[in-house]
Amino acid sequence: MKKKESYKNVADSETIKTEVVCPNDANPMGLLQGGRLVEWMDIGAAVCAQTHSGKICVTASINQVDFNAAAKVGDIITIFARITRAFTTSMEIFVQSYARKVLAEKKYLISEAYFTFVALDEMGKASEVISLLPVTVSEKKQFNAALLRRKNAAKKK
Hints:
Blueprint: E1 7-8, E2 15-20, H1 34-53, E3 56-67, E4 76-86, E5 90-100, E6 108-120, E7 131-132, H2 137-156
Parallel strand pairs: 1-7
Antiparallel strand pairs: 2-4, 3-6, 4-5, 5-6
C-alpha cells in the first residue's frame, strides 16, 4: 500500500499560464481590461491550488489586487501562481502577471494579488489539504506572511 505524502513543496504546484491580449480583452483604448486579467489570474491560481491539493478548489477571496502597469492588444501575458501556505481546508496562492511585447525579450510586472482557495470533497464540502513545506528563504517569508494576512483578514470580518 502506498503511503500518503505528509507535505508538498511550493515547486510541486507552481503554475505558469500564458495568454495573448486580443481586441476582445481590451477597452476602447486598446488596454487589457483589469477584469479579464483577474479572470486569467484566478484560473492560474485555481490550477495551482488544485495541483497542490489534488481536489477541486473554489475561490474564497482575492486579497488586494495591485495593477502596476498596463498591457496592450498584442502583448503576451505570463501569469505565475505559487502556493504560499496551506491551512486546514484552504490555501493562499500568490499570483504575479507580467507582460511583454511580441518582439521584446524583457517582461514587466503588470499585476499581483493573493488568492485564497478552499478544497472541496466529492459532496462539495470543505476538505483537508496536504501541508506545505517551504524550502527557500523567500518561500519561508511568504509562508509566515500568509498567516499574518489571514489573521488580519479575520479581524476585518
